[in-house]
């Protein structure tokens, strides 16, 4: 089975999910008792969450890109693991909006942040599962030049990639700001040049 | 007529429809009389419906993929049958939201579940019609290696694929939960490895 | 300039616009004084408008497809005429929702229907302009086998294609239902097999 | 790394962002004290902003197209600069809606217009940064026929392209209408035939 349409469909879903993040930036209704600056200022969690989730989905897309590049073809199991991954990515506009809405509330902020961290954890866990399956059980679908040593390296990196989101989820019980800060740090770490090898490997 | 743009357009429409499912997951407004956990818990039909409809549209996409792979080219009749199929797929975010909103209501739940089941039935019926037309009337557009026996197999499977959604629709008059459960079972059945042949055939 | 990305971008925009039509189908809030069946029944203009606009955008997409297939390459003028066409297509979810919302109202229904008809008229007029420009001023970008006689045929058909939308717009001042009926008839006419030549030509 | 998927993902994101502009065109609820014509008339800033932002994102897409056409391949730094560019483009439906909502308000209009101008400025500044990086630091990824003189020309044009948005942002403090007018003028200037060379170069 050809992988071109899988890429096209995944790109489409990820592109829509990343763009839907803007829907959570709301235009405040004009009000007499507060200036627009003040009301936009109150929305700072939404703007911060927009940047963090946008970069995070962008990093997922780059990693997804890298994963599919290693494959010569796909089979049914990969189609459906990929679908599970997309299902967790499409959740992110919701969990982002939830975390942002409750970050400044007294009640609910811990749960909202834990759900946000948890959705990133789920996404990275499904990504790890997908790669584990590809690199362990579907070696006949990989490009011939991918060595066992390289496969182990990729898997180690994927395994390590789950850890910060485990931390971000746990951190919600200390402070929801910490969840947001750790998620931001992960995204920036992956975006910064030189912190990970350019190619081959996960971004 | 080349089939590349038909695939690209269909992938785009299906990708947007599957992603719009997230819009029905609502961030509850903070309230004094109920915790966030409680209010999210009340939304469980929306989360369940999200998973079921996401997997269902994913299965449709895989099957659509399989259908177009059998074709060398497309003609006008295929373009418009495909358009009818897309029209039923794009309805699903609406019927999903309707079913989820009324699942816990005393009044309207039967109708809402019947409409949800009915929209899946309609979608599978249009898919059957499209395949019937392709495999019966447009054999000159199929790849040369597709045998009459194989064509009969695909059509039988498509015909059988309509049955569970007929059941899911009828089940609404017994219990709306049953409609949701049958729809979930169908999606999981198609996703589970080994329950259907990998290739060739419908996923 | 290569036309592949123009096709991909146009397909993306049209795919999103056609899918956004579903957003105008609203889940009624549960109410004590009216059954769900009654409240969905009141929304029939939205369902009718969904079908008509979905088929109409589908027909546009098929025609757009046919237009770009005649080209070997594109230049700047085509990029921007195409952008103007997309701008009128993206308006349709709004004008569809407007017409549907006011169809059963005493006040505003004429204007809403005229705007709906007018948006279809605008779209077909821009499409005619784009084809006029391509077939008259950009013959060096057309495939070599496209004869002057064929070019005249396409332009005549495009010119004739504007007429029903002129009629649909004017009909709003007689009855808004007439606008909807004419728009539906145009879409069905293009979709019906055998009413227009399969290839070459506009769908 | 192949640039095809980068193009496809960028096209998808830009296509969704440009189409989401229609969401800010609202269907007025029927009211007894004002005609539909009057209420749509009050929304003229939304319609004007729709046209200006649609053309602007269209111009960005054409320029993005031109930028990637110069490249033979992409690396990690380009992926992430492109992601930053997309993040500023996806903001535009929000800043467009904000500017339109406050254009006729006494309070907040200056800030809203400055944010709109500022978001266009940010977008053009990131675009300049991306091109600067490509044309200065990534010359090995460019097509071989791109001369140093041509690279300087492109960079000068990109540098000049930032200026009108600097002006549009500053103009908000004189009049928010001026911000809208300058942004409209920039879009029309790029769309008008003959004002910039067709190829090669930025649109």
From TrEMBL, chains A, B, C, D:
Where in the cell is the protein located? Membrane
Membrane-topology descriptor? Multi-pass membrane protein
Keyword field contains Ion transport: yes
Instruction: Tell me what reaction this enzyme catalyses.
Output: K(+)(in) = K(+)(out)
- Give the stretches traversing the membrane: 9-27, 47-66, 78-104, 110-130, 165-192
Q: Which domain of life is it from?
A: Bacteria
Name a GO CC annotation attached to this entry: membrane
Going by the UniProt record, its keywords in alphabetical order are: Ion channel, Ion transport, Membrane, Potassium, Potassium channel, Potassium transport, Transmembrane, Transmembrane helix, Transport
Named from the GO MF annotations, one term is: proton channel activity
A family per Pfam: TMEM175
Q: Does the keyword tRNA processing apply?
A: no
Q: Which family does it belong to?
A: Belongs to the TMEM175 family.
UniProt-recorded name of the protein:
Putative membrane protein
Q: Which organism is it from?
A: Allobranchiibius huperziae
